[in-house]
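User: Fold this; tokens only.

Assistant: Input:
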Amino acid sequence: MNTGVTAIVPIRSFSGMTRLSSDLTANQRHKLSRSLASVAVKAALGADLRVVIVSSDPEVRAWATVQAIDSIDDYGSGLSESVTAAVGTLGNDPWLVLHADLPLLTSKIIDSLAGEVATGESVVCPSLDGGTNIIGGSGPFKFSYGPGSFTRHLAELVGAKVVVSKALAIEVDTADHYAALSTLGYMPSLAT
């Protein structure tokens, strides 16, 4: 059990995933976004983490409330600023920031990462394109998402453990990602 570790899950809205608009309808993208968010939340809850959703979207916040999950505003200033502010509310407590587009996440994976963070270690999990899919540490931290964020985050978390695995690197960001993961049977049914 990882008592004291908080999982921060930023979700701008369930109406995003616009890079998939050439392959999926708005309704299908909405279903996919909710499904992937559920994967992240289920993995964190299964690892006994407190979960906080970062969003100002009324639908996302209502979804969190129905699941008895805390939510805080995203401050409307972008991912980096919103997550920096969210982590700042935790004082010096340990945290894991995980994104809601990782279809292969499991409680076992999150439990392992949270175990590292609970003992004072920092972890950084890169995406396939050099971004940051999961990052964990303790206390305030200034996030710097965007292209190449893994390198920037690693430089700021001196001595962080780099954790590389397909479950942590594979995200659903593009139509190619979605198509490949669908072919492998990792995507939920999006039938309307």
